[in-house]
Amino acid sequence: MVKDPGFAAEKECRIVHELQVGELRNMRFAQKTTLMSRHLPLSFPNGGEAWVPRLPIVKVLVGPCRHKEVTRISVDTLLRKMGYGTGLVFSSKSPFQKT
């Protein structure tokens, strides 16, 4: 992965997944102002069930993006829904740049 050295302090982890042929039908697309994005929807175990193994998420950093506070709140809500609790999501201090 290529990452600008300016973001090294964030100690970010990324999950890289090689798209499998059978997953193409699950692909989602969104037209944005300057690009068309694509992603596979994330799936989590049902929230609130203590026996369900979860990823050991300790922090999620949102941004830089145009609406990082809205995104931060949405990610926090998703994590709460999945049983992770609240207070794990923070906004990046790096500025958003539209190039």
Secondary structure layout plus pairing:
Layout: E1 28-31, E2 36-39, E3 60-62, H1 68-81, E4 89-91
Parallel strand pairs: 3-4
Antiparallel strand pairs: 1-2
Structural class from helices and strands? Answer: alpha+beta
Shape: globular
Number of strands: 4
Mean pLDDT: 79
Alpha carbon gyration radius: 15 Å
The percent of residues in helical segments reads 10-25%
Rounded to the nearest angstrom, the distance between the terminal CA atoms is 21 Å
Low-pLDDT runs: none
Largest sheet: 2 strands, antiparallel
The percentage of residues in β strands lies in 5-15%
Main β-sheet, spatial strand arrangement: 1-2
Number of DSSP helical runs? 1
Could you state the order of secondary-structure elements as H and E?
Answer: EEEHE
Structure report:
- The protein is α+β, with helices and mostly antiparallel strands and 99 residues long.
- It is 14% helix and 14% strand.
- It is built from 1 helix and 4 strands, in the order E-E-E-H-E.
- The strands form 2 sheets. Strands 1-2 form a two-stranded antiparallel sheet. It has a two-stranded parallel ribbon with strand order 3-4.
- Strand 1 and strand 2 form a beta hairpin.
- The longest helix has 14 residues, at 68-81.
- The protein is globular, with a radius of gyration of 15 Å.
- The mean pLDDT is 79.
